Automatic annotation (TrEMBL):
This is RNA polymerase factor sigma-54. Coiled coil: none annotated. Residues 62-73 have a biased composition (Polar residues). Residues 32-48 have a biased composition (Acidic residues). Residues 32-86 are annotated as: Disordered. It comes from Rikenella microfusus.
Amino acid sequence: MQQRLSPQQIQGIKLLELPTLQLEQRVKQEIEENPVLEEEERENDQDETNLTLEDYIRNEESASSYKLKTNNTSKDDERRSPTLSQGMSLQDFLTEQLAYHNLSEKEMTIARFVIGTLDDDGYLRRPTASIADDIAFTQGIEVTEQEVDRVVGIVQMLDPAGIGARDLGECLVIQLKALRNQTPAVRLAITILTDHYDAFVKKHYERMMRRLGVTEDEFRAALEEIMHLNPKPTNGYSDESSAASPNIIPDFILDYSNGNFDLQLASRSVPDLKINSSYLRMAEKAMNSGSQSESDKEALQFIRQKIESAKWFISAIRQRQETLMKTMRAILQFQHDYFVEGDEAKLRPMILKDIADATGFDISTISRVVNSKYIQTHFGVFLLKYFFSEGLPTEGGEEVSTREIKRILAEAIENEDKHDPLTDEALMDTLTAKGYKIARRTVAKYREMLGIPASRLRKEL
């Protein structure tokens, strides 16, 4: 025998995973697909409580009067939407500059195609041969690789400097060559990036200085020029598709005042739901009639199915909210000290099993609840997964969150001597001195999780 989930159970799991914004869309979709389900008007709440339909609509009072949210707003309240700023797209900006270059019709076609091939960060990562083939296929124009490379060189002359580069090294060199004041430091920087790029990336500075025959001051001046360059030339240029940054819609709202927490679900514009009374009366009338035609039976069966589906959907939404609130209350209780002030040092080690044990839910249920859900607190908006972390024992026998370990590592690296950066061994000694006994490989793992390179790559002159 095998245990299988019913379609309704699967739909319930999917509802549990949905964040607030997607839940709104899912509710609206269900209202459109199920004629029995409709939005409820507060003034008519009491009119629906006495409607019954024999065995089908028993307990209808609890189902139809269930509210998805509490509406504390007035009709006079003004709804404000964020203003979207929209500027010229980068592609239009580059195409406009082509007018200042004396290009033939064929070259203009190639240039427009190259501009349309650029990645979001402004790099041209497609091989020349592939571009030439695509132009022949889509534009019906035979072009050689040499023609494409020549037009790419023209695109690389456009503003912003560095656009159309094949890689980071070429991008930086293009920016340096575009500088009006070609000082010795700029020329040395071009030589470093052109002839010694691999050694530069690996920060083999002493070896490079010996090969180039320059002093430390000259080399430092060249590095300063490189550090002022922009690795992503498209930064600062808007695009129509990304004109507005996405807004985070919190799923929970937590207020704290006078030592008390007030936790609420942020339902926003999710409508209250009920079963349409017209269909209830229609079904009652069909069931009470003495004789029913075949069409009446089919209509009754259809209404029954839709009513059952509506009842299940309302119940699933209610179950979703109860599960979310119970889970969030358990997290709030577990991390009580942290939520009072938002001090990361007070964030206790917490894993999914801790909340599963506190709520009685399965670990998979907790995982679905915290997935893509946010909470708005008096000190910021956070992803629920932020509050979960492993624990490490201290010398005193207490457990500390790995997030605290990462914070100490980040601070130690931030305050280190950049001429002699801390190795993983030294970072391990720093943590040991604070009472955290951690192996060197664990320190390296946390450092990599923080996106911090090894000590050799952090070294500066």
